[in-house]
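Marked as duplicate of an earlier ticket. Keeping the data here for the record.
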Amino acid sequence: MSTQTLKTIRVTDFNLEHTIDCGQFFLYEFNKEDQFYYIIENDKVFKIKQIDNTLFYNGTKNVTEQFITHFFSLDEDLQQRTKNFTDKTLTQALEMYWGLRNIRQDLFQCMIGFVCSSASNIPKIKNNLRLICKNFGDEIDFEGNKYHTFPTPQQINNLEMIKECKTGYRAKFIYSICQQLQKDNNLEQIKTQNYLDSKKSLMEFMGIGTKVADCICLFALCHKESFPIDTWIIQIIEQMYLDGEKHTIKQIDQFIQKQFKENKGLAQQYLFHWARFNLKN
């Protein structure tokens, strides 16, 4: 399919590659031949690529311009959101990865994705989710190829099959979350809560601790004050802001609250992405 037959969206201050590949979203594959990202989001399948300031995309019938705009936060003013990112490290991260935006993900898919992220890496997480879709999701046709949508909590109903998705010890967490949601699905309520309340609610699910809850708050619930702290963040804060001295997570959290006043979540994502490729061990 040529780009002339695809739907298009003009964009400014947006970089598709940085946004998808920065570790906030996992159900995608990049096709080197046609240069498209193929993405599964809940019950949607679509492909998308960027050429200069234009996005070219095609998807299942529920993939609209409104959805693409919302999913990639194209309706936000990135210049405004980053105007206070003025320290040396953040400035460097902005220069290198300008156009990175937070994706607004489906809440349940995000929960399962970041439960799988515990003590793992991006290729393994992507494989976990791909197998979960294959084993539990609905088959869907897109451009003559078969894909599987991300399943509902009701569909993920077999612990042994979850283990077959190479999820390891996380299988019992995924199964427990789905069982709990089948009994009392409070996800819509969580969506209406403020940052601290939604974080507390998420941590009531088995397998969701502070860091995972913060990731879900940032990437699915759009709580801009959420700042997930993982090993990369600990290293970058200690090395780039605290003279290389070791600190407790509590001390690092206190520093973060003082240092990053607004749009903490977006600052975190730029720092995280910068650290993965530029931080010296």
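See parent ticket for discussion. The chain has three domains: 3-75, 85-100+226-281, 107-219.
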